[in-house]
């Protein structure tokens, strides 16, 4: 089995748990599977350290150019998302990467970036409650599902605010590798994961 490349997109003023939570879930899943499933990396426009929300300094593992075609793409949110959605290099990379990725997931206000990239047209979406109005402006064709922890549109997933990204990451593991693998990770992390809690929304056909 070939390890899936996972790109977790970060930028200045990204919310720490938005990227650190999913990173832990996915990386621990890989660790407990003998490093056979996923190669999880934090990626940014450049290799320079970023300053996350509240001052955490983070050095990306790779640049966007280093990972043009990851299997999984996760886009963190945070107050920096307002500036990141103006980053034409990031938007172009997302559009290209999403064309070949198996799954693309936003966490929190990372949905704003996906919306700006034109990736949420007509989809069921959720985000942090403080930016739902902004998301509606960016993509008026999307259906806001703010009572959902996360939404699943097949390829594109969105999660609610901050901690919801952890549940979204567990959902991805469950979908890709099965319930037993996901529960093993949750047990190791001592995380009270509820697979059926506020289930993902699928679009009406």
Tag the structure with descriptive keywords.
205 residues; seven-stranded mixed sheet; two-stranded antiparallel sheet
List the helices and strands and how they pair.
Blueprint: E1 4-9, H1 16-32, E2 38-44, E3 50-51, E4 57-58, E5 62-63, E6 72-75, H2 81-84, H3 88-100, E7 103-106, H4 110-116, E8 124-125, H5 132-138, E9 143-144, E10 150-152, E11 156-159, H6 164-177, H7 179-189
Parallel strand pairs: 1-2, 1-6, 2-5, 6-7, 7-11, 8-9
Antiparallel strand pairs: 3-4, 10-11
Helix pairs in contact: 1-6, 1-7, 6-7
Radius of gyration: 15 Å
CATH superfamily: Class I glutamine amidotransferase (GATase) domain
- Write down how many β-strands occur, each being a DSSP E stretch of 2 or more residues: 11
- Estimated structural class: alpha/beta
In the CATH hierarchy, the architecture is 3-Layer(aba) Sandwich
Count of alpha and pi helical runs: 7
- Helix/strand order, N-terminal first: EHEEEEEHHEHEHEEEHH
Using the coordinates above, name the CATH class: Alpha Beta
Largest sheet: 7 strands, mixed
Shape: globular
Give the overall average pLDDT: 94
**Ranges with pLDDT <50 over ≥5 residues?**
none
Provide the β-strand percentage band: 15-25%
Biggest sheet: strand arrangement = 5-2-1-6-7-11-10
First CA to last CA: what distance? 34 Å
Percent helix, as a range, is 25-40%
């Amino acid at each position: 089995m070939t390890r899936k490349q996972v790109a977790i997109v970060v930028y200045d003023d990204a919310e720490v748990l938005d990227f650190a939570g999913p990173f832990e879930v996915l990386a621990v899943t890989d660790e407990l599977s003998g490093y056979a499933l996923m190669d999880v990396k934090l990626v940014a426009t450049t290799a320079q350290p970023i300053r996350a929300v509240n001052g955490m300094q983070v050095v990306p593992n790779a640049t966007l150019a280093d990972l043009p075609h990851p299997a999984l793409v996760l886009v963190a949110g945070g107050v920096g998302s307002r500036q990141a959605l103006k980053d034409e290099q990031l938007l172009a990379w997302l559009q290209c990467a999403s064309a070949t990725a198996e799954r693309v997931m936003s966490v929190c206000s990372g949905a704003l970036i996906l919306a700006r990239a034109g990736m949420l047209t007509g989809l069921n979406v959720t985000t942090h409650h403080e930016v739902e109005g902004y998301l509606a402006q960016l993509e008026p064709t999307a259906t806001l599902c703010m009572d959902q922890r996360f939404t699943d549109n097949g390829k594109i997933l969105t999660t609610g605010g901050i901690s919801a990204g952890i549940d979204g990451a567990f959902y991805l593991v469950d979908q890709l590798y099965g319930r037993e693998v996901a529960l093993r990770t949750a047990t190791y992390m001592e995380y009270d994961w509820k697979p059926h809690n506020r289930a993902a929304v699928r679009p009406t056909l």
